[in-house]
Amino acid sequence: MRQSDLVDNPSTKSRGHAPYFIVLQSHHLDELDSVVIAPVVRDAARALTVLDIPLAFRGEAFVIALSEIASVDRGLLKSSRGSASEHEDEIRRGLERLLTGF
Q1: CA 43, 86, 93 angle in degrees (round to 5)?
Q2: What CATH number corresponds to the domain at position 47?
Q3: What is the pLDDT of residues 26-54, one digit of tens each?
Q4: pTM of the model
Q5: How many domains, in total, are found in the chain?
């Protein structure tokens, strides 16, 4: 898995709302048992904040919900379904706002 990869949400409970996770953690930390992700949600009507990034993937509108970052067991995540690397700058700016307030 590489940073910005989109992977299936392994939770059957939340998959309907957030079918994918985006990998936020660098691939240089692959030796860790966990990986930092953010959910990619289907809530197209969601009021976007500076921490929400619109994403079109496989013909559907999603939002990367950076305010909901989490760490999950790497073993739960399967192979990449695609990449959101074209949003790298927006993601970095959003994470900077989340972590520093600026």
Answers
A1: 75
A2: 2.30.30.110
A3: 988 988 999 999 999 997 666 678 789 99
A4: 0.91
A5: 1
